[in-house]
Amino acid sequence: MSDTTHYDLVIIGTGSGNSLVTPELEGRRIAVVEGGVFGGTCLNVGCIPTKMFVYAAEVASTIRDASRFGIDASLDQVRWTDIRDRVFGRIDPISDGGRDYRVDGGHTEAYLGHARFVSDHELEIEITRPGGHHELGSVHRITGDQVVIATGSRPHVPDVVLDSGVPFHTSDTVMRLPELPASMVILGGGYIAAEFAHIFSALGVEVRIVTRGDGLLRALDAELAAAWTDLARAQWDVRTGVEAVSLEQGESEIELTLSDGSTASGEVLLVATGRTPHTHDLGLEHTGVSTHDDGRVVVDRFGRTAVAGVWSLGDASSEHQLKHVANHEARAVAHNLAHPDDLRAFDHRFVPAAVFTHPQMACVGLTEAQAQDEGYAVTTKVQRFGDTAYGWAMEDTTGLLKAVGDAATGRLLGVHAMGPMASTLIQPAIQALSMGPSVTAHELARGQYWIHPALSEVLENALLGLHVPEDVGGDT
Ligand SMILES: Cc1cc2nc3c(=O)[nH]c(=O)nc-3n(C[C@H](O)[C@H](O)[C@H](O)COP(=O)(O)OP(=O)(O)OC[C@H]3O[C@@H](n4cnc5c(N)ncnc54)[C@H](O)[C@@H]3O)c2cc1C
Ligand SMILES: NC(=O)c1ccc[n+]([C@@H]2O[C@H](COP(=O)([O-])OP(=O)(O)OC[C@H]3O[C@@H](n4cnc5c(N)ncnc54)[C@H](O)[C@@H]3O)[C@@H](O)[C@H]2O)c1
Questions:
Q1: Does the C-beta of 151 come closer than 6 Å to ligand 1?
Q2: Nearest Cα residue to 199 out of 334, 360, 313
């Protein structure tokens, strides 16, 4: 083992952690530690590759759907390896380039290995990956005045799967399959299940979903989640309210026996049963850093842990496992590292989310149930995409956008959408909510132009449809 090397700042994890090295830290001695693929989840196995696959899936779906518009087209062939290689041919060089920049860039020292705390500010790193300046297998001790835990999260795999010994994929591996299987059974009914069900079924794979919840995408507004679950049942074999009790590798398929006695099988098993903060192997027991029961590091609104000078952000500590949240927290922590006397707090008031499935889902703010629980005089309006001009153009039959408002004040409380481009469509609502409560829902609808006949008229109409008394900005 080498002598201990001291740094002003040590960053563990190169997802959002990589963006902490800002010009404001010029002159500081910084170590960046990465035990996996450089660039973290979003770039390598998360948001970016999945959305590149989703786009290809949309192209396939559009071709299949074309005859509704009087255009006869047929999907001749899906070249999986070309689809896959388009994605990773773009992403892998970005990851390698990011690593080389940190290894050779001069501003930082990169350790390509796994970090473990041995005390509050001291870490041991074993070099596990090639590409850096340290010998593979060598062990290093480093200390940092400031240490940032940005170690993200990893797939959770239930014991019943692990104990069965059957081969399985998670989102970490399924995008690199050597060939498309004929069928896939997906365990789980959340974001990852919904996105991969869309991707693989659009590319011709028969999809079966098994989830213990009584519906899919249950974290979303109940009315829209139920509507989406109905559409999912029409597309795929969906089993809800069941768990796998045993798994076996058959001749060509993996067979799951479910808690209701039925079975579900697929050539490939994808496990999508949630993600766990990646903090279990960090040696936190040697520090004063505390964790929640689910493994998340406890931080205050500035990203500070219980140990002075040790910070955390992103999936390692956040209740939102979303990249835009990790990025936001990283921007705050980057500022706080440079300006300890002028700390910037995280703002989690209006965290939006989107599920890039078919149809797409997006949300911001309170669901109807949350608004009721919080005691608002709730008013809602569900606007069908198909009742707007652009919806006619799209021949849309399933899209819905629900606005949730407070009848007492006219304020908008939340927006939930299911349909084409939902993730883009709700952005004005994210902006309006984030700007503060001074603008009522009707003022938002009438205080600006909405391009006609754009899809955004779905949101405009939903806002206008909220029942709000005239004296608080409404016209009903
Ligand atoms: C399939 C999938 C699709 C997703 N799609 C979206 C999306 O569309 N939109 C969205 O907002 N979010 C999406 N997410 C979530 C998003 O990817 C994460 O919220 C985000 O990437 C978390 O960033 P992070 O910086 O906290 O962690 P990460 O990006 O996971 O970075 C943590 C890094 O730390 C490293 N590390 C861990 N422990 C150690 C250690 N002890 N020593 C050294 N290094 C260590 C890891 O190898 C990793 O590189 C998706 C996630 C998945 C899995
Ligand atoms: N578009 C996006 O923003 C995006 C996309 C993918 C992932 N993510 C993030 O990653 C996180 C993890 O995604 P996920 O889909 O793995 O988790 P999730 O929490 O969204 O869903 C997990 C699902 O698995 C089910 N489940 C859990 N244990 C089970 C079991 N033993 N048997 C059957 N079903 C079981 C749950 O009921 C739930 O439906 C998401 O919560 C999200 O924050 C975001």
A1: yes
A2: 360
